[in-house]
Amino acid sequence: MNPRLDVAINLGPADLVLKRLIKQGLDLTPVLGGEVNSILNDFFKQQFASEGVYGGAKWAPLAPVTLLARKRRGHGRGGILRDTNKLWASLTKMGLGPNAVRSIRPLSLTRGTSLKYAKWIQSGYVSPTFIVLGKNGQVIPLRRRVAKRVAARMIVPRRLPSQVSQRIAEAIARFMRRTHAQ
Q1: I need a surface site. Which of 36, 52, 147, 165 has the fewest CB within 10 A?
Q2: Is 151 helix (H, G, I), strand (E, B) or coil?
Q3: Distance from C-alpha of 44 to C-alpha of 24, rounded to nearest angstrom
Q4: 125 vs 116, more confident
């Protein structure tokens, strides 16, 4: 099983009331798969553009060796976590990009990525490396591995920012009003 990194939108305290309404035929999949999905897409775009600030925790800067590696042809297209854009594309294309995870149920929407390295980035890890930089910035190849601690970069915060949660609540409320007005 591939490790995944997901953000799930569950409706919490409203869950019991909504479950009763679902038994009576209410289906939230149109709003969860539409407007709420779009709100999450905007969140991920802003999270990458702000390098984590939007979600509440600025990502650690790139290591000098990473900056040096980014000078290679075909790399370094964007900021932090955007070297190949695979992670970005899996989270910012409405859940339809390569490696994207999207599941819509009557009471929940799950968005995430199936890229194996996303969980490691989220929590931080220790990486064995064969390269270090000398004082003059030159790469010094090593004959043995040196453990390197890679700082966590919270792609998905423990809690979504309040403005995002508020937009989601408002979208669901509008949908409920429209549905009950019919």
Answers
A1: 147
A2: coil
A3: 34
A4: 116
